[in-house]
Amino acid sequence: MTTTLAADAAAAEGVRLQLLKAGDDAETLFLMPGVEGDLAELLPAVQAMTGPQQVYAMMPVLPDAIGLPAAATQVVTAIRGLQPVGPYRVGGYSFGALLALEVAQQLRAAGQDVGSLFLIEGVYDERFWPRRMWVRALLRRTGWQLARIVRMRPLAALAEVRLRGVRLIRRLVRRNAKTADSVRDVASAETHSARYAYQSMAAYRPRTYPGTLTLIATSQDRHFGCDVARLWAGLAERVVVQRVDGDHLEVVREPVAAAAVAAAIDHGLAMARPGWPGVRPRPGFERPMILTTMRWFAAARLAHALIEAGFEVSACRPRGHVLELVDGLIADCRLNRLWRRRSLVAAIRQAQPDIILPDDERALALLRRLHESVKLTDPELAALVGRSLGDPAQWTSVTSRSGLAATAKSLGVTAPETAVVDDRRQLADWPLPYALKTDGSWGGRGVAFVREPADAATAWRSVAYPPSLPRALKRLVVNFEAAPFSAWARRARPVVNAQGFVEGREGIVTAACFEGEATAVVCLEVVAATEARGPAAVVRVIDHPQMASAARVLVERFGLTGFCGFDFMITESGEAYLLEVNARVTPTCHLLVEGAAPAGRTLALFPASTPDSEFVDVPRRVPALVQRGQTLVARKQRRSARLARRLRIAR
């Protein structure tokens, strides 16, 4: 009965209204359809939504005499008849996106709160596009037409050239016209609603929106000659871009694309709720820069999650990194492999971050070297780096495996016996089995296990000496890493530690920190790894108070800010032994930002696991990342890659 009365009231205001999804009337979403004004075209996307929101589709009855702002006023009146006060949640598809934008502008102008605004493939008239973008789009569309024409028969090709030539001239004339006209193909529109939509779009120039705008855009352009997301750059205080695979004309109708649109809207509404568990920006942690020297996928996954959550994210990365596929970076800077420190300083000057998030051990070491070099000459830069890496007085304890074990035990954290070993003969005193681990090693490198007395000599040789000349030269020439060659030239030996072996299953704690406080933690157990001693491929979220408490205590001791990870070994009795602290970004950090880690959930990490795997954690809101991840998985299946992995394991 209430819905019927609402529909009658809306109709009296000149607005057609339809309830597409029943739900929480305290969280109502108002959606507007495309040029045809068909409310039912939104139904596939709405039916795919899983959130608690109630959803109405609405469209004004569009007389020729009024423009888009007047039509939006009718919609605002109808919306406020259903929901007198905000926060309001509005969205629209194609022409409906422009209508939704104007509705949000008018609601804000009336002093109302617009909590969420979703524009699905919203495109405004090309007369108002930036000139350079318009020219490029014109050339691109012309190229598409020429490619099609050359495949036609001669007479048909001549007719098409004439038609396209006339339209091209009209576009060129229309671009500089001071008033709207009907050059758009209005006559071909089949409905009154479509004719009105084309006419009103020709006269509507979007104003800058003083809030956050979520643009849901297709990842491929088949109609406009430009990336829709670029059209909206600078037209809102903040633009969040969500990509979906699909075509502009079918994105809310085709089931797969419609489901992706629904997921993007569900996630956007969930993040706006007061109880959202994900990490949010706060003063001092609003403008993170991700620093990476490796081409690891996790950096891009975290960057996208942070951008969704409202952070102003920048990156300093090597060329070809998957971060290039992430929309919304405020600065995307190159890390020069030959002049890393210099390029990093330039990136910091450009992006002005309030914290730097190292993505790998090399990035961590680079930041520490930068801090050492500028602590006397540039105190401001040194303070930024120091704050990003925690208390400088504690860096040695984090880097040294034996120092970490001693610090952990002093804080009441359980850790295996660990001590520096200077000579192989000292190993005779260690009870079997045990592990040899070098300081500063990562990814399974610099680790060897000794299970029998005969294994000690081989294990010692594999970790206790500088890299060989061929390997050092390879790292220098191919990877642009000078450290291995320098270690070979200086005959510098790594610091080797013996560590008591703990039988059990691997555990991980991922933490978000701020000035020595762990603001969010998630405990995981490793179900499967990518390879022996390799990173996790499948994890399960667990409730483990001992691991969580240990992580919080260590975060406080080391004064950490940003993201970090802790590696544990969990025995059959459930006791957890601390093995390592990674004072940097780890592959599961995005879970803390997305708030997607309920206990008991099993996650197959992408791209360590393929999208076909059960429980796979695919970044479906970023199709470009999914495609790149699938490519990386395919490369790993090549024979040469499998051989390289076997050789690395054998070493």
TrEMBL record:
Transmembrane region(s): none
Keyword set, alphabetical order: ATP-binding, Nucleotide-binding
Keyword Nucleotide-binding assigned: yes
Alphabetical list of PROSITE patterns matching this protein: ATP_GRASP
Domain ATP-grasp: 405-612
One family name in Pfam for this protein: Thioesterase
Protein name: Thioesterase domain-containing protein
